[in-house]
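[Automated response] Your request has been received and processed.

Submitted sequence:
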Amino acid sequence: MGEAKISWLQLTLEAGGGLDAGRLEDALLEAGAVAVTLTDAADEPILEPAPGETPLWSHTRVTGLFDAATDLDGVRAELRALLGSVPERDAAGLEERDWVRAWMDNFQPMRFGERLWVVPSCSAPPEPGAVNLLLDPGLAFGTGTHPSTAMCLEWLAGAGVDGARVIDYGCGSGILAIAALKLGATEAWGVDIDPQAWLATRSNADANGIAAERLKVGAPEALPPDPADVVLANILAGPLIVLAPRLAALTRPGGRLVLAGLLARHAAEVIAAYAPWFELRTGAQRDEWVRLEGLRR
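Generated structure:
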């Protein structure tokens, strides 16, 4: 067997000592890195940032990716000129691999409830006669691997949405809207503030044979005033609290509201925000994440 070909070099720096992660990232890019990643150096999860925040860990590693022909000694010299010192943790070569395929090999079909499957394009549906949603990982959030998305999919699989009009508020990849349509909903809206989510949702809808007239995609202000039978919002606790009057207005009397993307410790605050319109309850919990659900008064 031949020796593996090194196609990339990576140099990892440790933030600290007056050199923050942003400064290290800028220096690596200026020194020729084609990509930079930031990772947690101290097993310090950031579960739910405040709206508008992009927090970093208190101990962050910053890794620059360089072409295999790069002279790392030259990179180090340039970093010293830019930073005064090089807080290097390690350097390594990366073998030639199809990294997308390697990642996809670990993304397997997942079942939600009794009849819904999320199936990547590289796999055959385990149950061809079931409701199979075709989805590959992409730039927008939502593949079913996160507990909050999984709990929403499980709710949809068991709730009965035949003939319903559904709003997926904060649609990300569009997975919830598409699942609702494949489970019998008549029409759905995929709503998000991120244009990347609109593209991802439309692309995933096309892959699943969902016509544009059944799934409309756009910004929140594009929503028509007509309330829906089912409103799902898989976002964060802070935005859910702020959006309480808006989501209540989007849910018809007797309609169903499902909220996810929040931690159990924030559930009481979210329930209180919706109390004028809904008597929400915790419908499911997985790890630290909960799903709230209730009917519009």
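Summary generated for your ticket: The first strand starts at residue 6 and ends at 14. The longest helix spans residues 147-159.
If you did not submit this request, please reply to this message.
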